[in-house]
Amino acid sequence: MLNPGQQQAVRASGHAMICACPGSGKTTVLKFRASHLLELDPASRLLAVTFTSAAAGELEERIRSQNPKLGDRLVCGTFHSLAKRQLERSGKRVNLKAQAAGAIMRSAYSEVVTQTNIYPFDEIASKVEYFKTHIDHSFGSPQNQMAEEV
Question: 147 in a domain, yes or no?
Fold first, then answer.
């Protein structure tokens, strides 16, 4: 089912980045890699972070379909949902409206870059949105080479 490059990605030790064109089997590789990692250590847990809720849901569904007895050993979510989950687990109540969240992000950004003043917040936000949708094209050759091999 997996080609040799995909098998190598599944069994790679340490961290791995999977970059490839749409429809090439990235999610399938991640599903098999998750299963492989969880089988290596039956006491281990796995956290999968994605950019969108839809991707997190799809990835979790695929991993759990292959490993139905995972229980709480697998957590999938977006950066935002996982951060919110951590805050809620520590007893913090989180219910920000999008406008309030934007104001908090602007304020935090202003504090961090006051000395450098490199880019305005809106420009950075638009770059983040761009990279979220064009991430395969934004990396240099090592990732592109890996994508070609997988």
Answer: no
